[in-house]
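Page 42, continued from yesterday. The earlier attempt failed because a stray header line got pasted into the input along with the sequence. Redoing it now with the clean sequence only.
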Amino acid sequence: MKQVYDIIEEYLSDQKTIVIGCSGGPDSMCLLHLLIEYRYNHNIQIICAHVNHNVRDVASHEQDFVKKYCHNNNIIFETTTLNEKDNSEANLRAKRYQFLFEILTKYNAKYLLTAHHGDDLIETILMRLTRGSNISGYGGFKLLSNIENFYIFRPLIYLTKNQILEYVNKYDIPFVLDKSNEDLKYTRNRYRHQVLPFLKKENPNVHLKFLEFSQEIYACDEIIKNIVEKEFIKNFSQNTYYLTDFKTYHPLVQNKIIEKYLHIIYQEKLNFITKKHLNLIIDMIHKNTNSQIDLPNNITLIKQYNQIKVLDKNQTTFEYKLELKDKIVLPNKYMLEITNSCPLTNNYCTRLSSQEIKLPLYVRNRKPSDKMQVKNMNGSKKLQDIYVDSKIPFNERNLQPVVVDANDTIVWLPGLKKSKFDKSNKEKYDIIVKYYFDSTNKGENI
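This time it went through. Structure tokens are written below.
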């Protein structure tokens, strides 16, 4: 355990608050106990975040168990319950991490600790090798991952499950057991109970060999990502990728360049793209003729001479004048309205001063040259970059409303970003515009 304690010391020594995801099982209770020991010598606040998946009958008991343990050990306890039992594993994982990131934000913490250990790493790598993945996927998971300005920290990655059980038994640490972990109908359990024993018989420290493999995979992936990033800085602009140096790269790098290009276009909907689509695009690029490919989600990829670019077959153009008491129904089915009051302070409401802008206001879709002076930011930013940062898929960007004044100066991106013209409740303003979804509207402007 000394190696684990030392790695916690190395990464968390300057942190005042840390969040741990805790299920109540032996792994997370081991990690929680280690943090309590660490707290004896460091001035830190521990936040325990528990997710009740509400699938098994004992879920409430496990929640109460973790809550009581935290109360007895002066640890702040936070929990959420997931009610959608029929959701996919991917959706449940997304909801779980959304909750955990909300807790990190609430307590102004940067590090989320999870109890993933060496055996988990073996299982993850083997499962991905079996079903297929990409380079970073084959690496399993890292000791430290950076996501959305937070860090996911897995200090138990150096330990096996048996070492964890020895620790909890030695210090008489209470825990709950999830009986579903024994059920061989689950893929991970089959690897855990049928494959890992064989590997450990061959080499008791096989988890460290898998860790070395993982670290080497991630190092190679980082090198490739750096090459791709430099290539994009040089040859990508306005959804167009210029093929100037493309054919000089190794086929693996070519694939990664196209993957990045498609990620920019599809954002979170990249799962629409298959290996077959990728191969068709690569083949098209290597042919000397101009051509095009129809891709999922109504997007067409066109190759013209030394460039590729995308066209959205559902492109929409709109522009409406915004006037008092009007309710504008936008093509994305959201409503825009100048109103007398709005309690919201987020990106779904803006307050403006008529002294700083030229009336009337208009709402339209984007233009290629659009830029906006974002609130609390020096200079202006391209709308394209804002859409990419906000993970808006390419074929949805023309549906995003842009509010401008009579000089066509952008004053607001509803739901996304406020401009420098936005006023707080304490400042002087005389215009309030709100953006909202009304399920009762019939798609007609009132």
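Notes: The two ends are 67 Å apart (CA to CA).
Reminder to self: strip header lines before submitting.
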